[in-house]
Amino acid sequence: MKNYLQKLKNAEFISLTKENKYLPLTPLEEISVWEILQVQISNHPVNVQEVFASRKVEDIYSLVRESIRSDLKDLTIADLM
Length: 81
What we know:
mainly alpha; Arc Repressor Mutant, subunit A; two-stranded antiparallel ribbon; 2 strands
């Protein structure tokens, strides 16, 4: 968890106060869930050709990923609260 908080801090989503509390640097209404997930995902790049044995499965993965991205891009942290 500390590792992920550090990544969010490095990506300038949050800041650590002198009291060791994390505060958002951007209003929660402006941070999409997809942006937050990208902080973690970007550190684990995946070459789908190396993961899936079939081009058909790769295509299905790409469709599902794009659908998830589309849904989460418009969903903000504030929406979850």
